[in-house]
Amino acid sequence: MNLERLRQLQPCLWTLPRAPGEERAQVLLYGSAPLLVSMDDKVLEQIANVASLPGLVGAAMTMPDAHWGYGFPIGGVAAFDAEQGGVISAGGVGFDISCGIRCLRSNLNLEDAVEHFPQLGKALFRAIPAGVGEEGEIKLNPEQLDQVMHGGAHWAVQQGYGTPADLDYVEEQGRVAGAIPENVSELAKKRQRGEMGTLGSGNHYLEVQVVDRIFDPGVALALGLHEGQILISIHCGSRGLGHQIGTDYLVLLAKAASRSGIHLPDRELACAPVKSPEGQQYIGAMNAAINCALANRQILTHLTRSVFTEIYPQAELETLFDVSHNTCKAETHQIDGESRLLYVHRKGATRAFGPGHPMLPERYRQVGQPVVIGGSMGTGSYILVGDSENPAFASSSHGAGRAMSRHQALARWKGRALVDELAQQGILIHTRSMRGVAEEAPGAYKDVDLVAEATEEAGLARRVAFLRPKVCVKG
């Protein structure tokens, strides 16, 4: 990205000045100069397009891990007021609706567990279906799938996948209201009936990690974290159902935008007024997909626990937190001293409530919501907590963020060589796709340390712990 086009407001905050005659809201980009330089100029074009949509409140924003995506940039945040003609956008949510990370903390330490990592990796790889279109053992009939879309993680717990205690530490307590399975196409439902309890492909993973470094001992204590502790992160979403909903509604919402007189500078920004029939229809389908994703990660949590107790009989895995990063949520925010209900799009961005927020579980209410910045399989990840002064509608970075396309990564790396190289570093990779490993090469991502530092510097979230990968099942 050419920084000469930007104006720096703070060390980790920039704006894109309007061109003469340009009519749009403000654009804000969070991140340090090195991170912004690593971004494609397409990010600027896309976030400027978002700033032109009706009913936007405040600025259209990008997080420090932003990169260009479909319509909205990934790492994009935008809030709309339905009472002012604000819109809901399928491109602003993304295809993998409610993709997110479930983080589990264990009572195991590295020195207790490391001897059995080869056995653990093989057992997890057998138990966790991963890959394009891969199905699991759970086969749902239409009625059962409707129950999943209504019940989310609650449905999974009722079926014996996990415990009620998990639900206290899942965003929305494991289930969002307003899901309407009738708004989901039969094709989307058909794609999902065999995919519950599966990881998927692409950048999805299940990773066994060790707490390598603590930044804030007091908050770490509140989160139940200590150096040398084994954690597990599960990164996946709503699988085929969410992707098909995104595909179906891009067409419907593009037509609705045209009928509503909304100028779309990019057709991939397909949107409709929140209050329109099409907008309400999409929200019902999106909420169904969110519940599907929450149920999926709950099932994967159960499968992971089963493997761990098989290898380590003394193992106990508790849900640290589960948060999505491809959603639109109706939330109340203070705008110029007034409480307003806004539809906050976070595409590749994580909700990050600060200390004291009433939606946080009691255990975390004094320290803020846990936030996970997932890194690549060769570097590491961060746990942070939301900042009470967060200026971005309580949003934060969600990962390292791609620095190059999958096509570019394929041209530069070979999967087999990467697996061997990472093994030399003590990181065991299990995958069905060496092509997928090459596409997700650690070098294809931004420096996760810089992303976490910039996230903290910008006041989005505060670092608590750094996690180093040890075993990774790649999607």
> In angstroms, what separates the terminal alpha carbons?
30 Å
Largest sheet descriptor: 8 strands, mixed
How much strand content do the residues show? 25-35%
Unreliable stretches covering 5 or more consecutive residues: none
Rg, rounded, reads: 21 Å
Q: Which descriptor suits the 3D outline?
A: globular
Look up the CATH topology: tRNA-splicing ligase RtcB
CATH superfamily: tRNA-splicing ligase RtcB
Determine the fraction of residues in helical runs and give it as a percent range: 25-40%
Number of alpha- plus pi-helical segments:
14
Strands, total number: 19
CATH hierarchy: architecture? Alpha-Beta Complex
CATH class: Alpha Beta
The chain-level structural class is alpha+beta
Mean pLDDT: 96
Q: Can you tell me the number of structural domains?
A: 1
Written account of the structure:
With 475 residues, this protein is an alpha+beta fold. The protein has one domain: tRNA-splicing ligase RtcB. 32% of the residues lie in helices and 26% in strands. It contains 14 helices and 19 strands. The strands form four sheets. Strands 7, 8, 9, 11, 15, 16, 18 and 19 form an eight-stranded mixed β-sheet that branches. The chain has a seven-stranded mixed β-sheet with strand order 1-2-3-4-5-13-12, with helices on both faces. A hairpin with a 2-residue loop joins strand 12 and strand 13. The model has no long low-confidence stretch (mean pLDDT 96).
